[in-house]
Amino acid sequence: MIFHPLGLAGAFRITPQLMTDERGAFARRFCADTFRARGLEADLVQRSISFNARAGTLRGLHFQAPPHLETKIVRCARGAIFDVIVDLRDSSPTYGQWHGEELTADNRLMLYIPKGFAHGFQSLEDNTEVDYEITPAYVPDAGAGFRFDDPILAIDWPVANIIISERDRALPPSFAGIRL
Ligand SMILES: Cc1cn([C@H]2C[C@H](O)[C@@H](COP(=O)(O)OP(=O)(O)O[C@H]3O[C@H](C)C(=O)[C@H](O)[C@H]3O)O2)c(=O)[nH]c1=O
Known about the structure:
By secondary structure, this protein is mainly β. It is 6% helix and 41% strand. The model has no long low-confidence stretch (mean pLDDT 98).
């Protein structure tokens, strides 16, 4: 695995290193010892799937409220997504900044998202599936977030036909004032 630090400290793009032969390839996409050695969270207690039937589906921008802040590893197992993380860490010099990354089944890229970030994505193809590794466990009442079209962030979502849930439509308009 190659860890590429993003401009938002503590977040990484991870590239699995393919070992190829005539059959195809093999690559490690997680290793607890490697993550611990890098000071990253290695005890990811839940693994989840997000299936998105239509291109343009947008989920987010979400986080779990303290004390249930999440660490996540996100990858695209089928199709493609535009993945966005937003730094909401109160003490961070990049507070209020965001990073977008195209994660696809073909590029096999992953994002490591530390605690204190909001997360969201938009699917770029039909039948897109996203894999999550998350800690701590899901706490239904801790769900929080803000709208994808926050005017302060002005995220340029790639697919014009945006499909979102009523819940996401009703989120607060901006991250302003949220400090984790
Ligand atoms: C997140 C989650 C949801 N659920 C249940 C709750 C609902 O019955 C159903 C769909 O939940 P929700 O609409 O909150 O799912 P998303 O809109 O995809 O939310 C996720 O989207 C953004 C992009 C994220 O990064 C988070 O993983 C998460 O907030 O799955 C669970 O049982 N466990 C879970 O961990």
